[in-house]
């Protein structure tokens, strides 16, 4: 939870005049700032991420405050938060279902896949949200790699035992690389989520409150 202080002394006269309308005006200001924070985060993410898809940017959401609950929440929708966590916090990411399935012992491969292996789709397969492989394609790959004559199969390089997943094309006459096995990916913190929100709040709140008080005050004769 983010807390902050704002110097509202220049607005004291308006605050006194607003009286019981202060909670309403404050809720308007908080919602204005939450909206501005959402825009600031989307702009920041567009700058620091490598060509983020619209789904990722639209994943920035906010819940509004009310005069009875003077708190707004700026957040990422769950599906986006899952694959953005490593970009925000740094470190590694959780295994995806496809990776867990590919490392299962039932697959037709000569060797066991190292436990720290992660799989990255090649560009031709980065057609899903967040530049990932689609769920339908992931299911198809898992189904086919469990068959000795499946359309997808796994191969391990003898030199470094790196697992590779290929797709048989044109009835098996051609092969196309689909997934590349890599070591545990390490992510540096790229998205300054809390910092961006904090800066936006501090920069915009007093102006937003001033505007909200003008709206809440009764019109002068």
Shape verdict? elongated
Quantity of strands, as a count: 6
> What kind of sheet is the major sheet?
4 strands, antiparallel
- Strand portion, in percent? 5-15%
Q: What is the strand arrangement across the widest sheet?
A: 3-6-5-4
Task: Assign a percent range to the helix content.
Answer: 40-55%
Total domain units: 2
Low-confidence stretches: none
Tell me the radius of gyration.
25 Å
Could you say which structural class the secondary elements and strand pairing correspond to?
Answer: alpha+beta
- What's the overall average pLDDT, rounded? 86
Please provide the ordered H/E string of secondary-structure elements. HHHEEHHEHEEEH
Concise description?
By secondary structure, the protein is an alpha+beta fold. It contains 7 helices and 6 strands, in the order H-H-H-E-E-H-H-E-H-E-E-E-H.
Could you characterize what this model shows?
With 221 residues, this protein is α+β, with helices and mostly antiparallel strands. The protein has 2 domains: 9-91 and 188-216, no CATH class; 97-182, no CATH class. Helices cover 42% and strands 15% of the residues. It has helices spanning 12-18, 22-48, 54-58, 78-89, 97-102, 135-145, 193-216, and strands spanning 60-63, 73-76, 118-121, 152-156, 163-169, 174-182. Helix 2 packs antiparallel against helix 7. The two termini are 43 Å apart. The model has no long low-confidence stretch (mean pLDDT 86).
